[in-house]
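ugh ok fine here u go
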Amino acid sequence: MKNAGIILIIIGIVMIMITGFNYVTEKKVVDVGSIQINKKENHPVQWSPVVGIVLLAGGLVIMFTQKSNAVK
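structure:
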């Protein structure tokens, strides 16, 4: 469970620093013989930094609530 906390902390930090990205798709509009017209479409994917803060906080809670497995 401690590994899940570490992963959530890392993902939370990355999501706070990087709030989105774009990807481009190419769509064929016209294809008549040797004439081709393509259209490039930009697709933004964005999220709020609050999501990163929630993930970071959740990871910290998991890390600090785990009991040690040390032999007594």
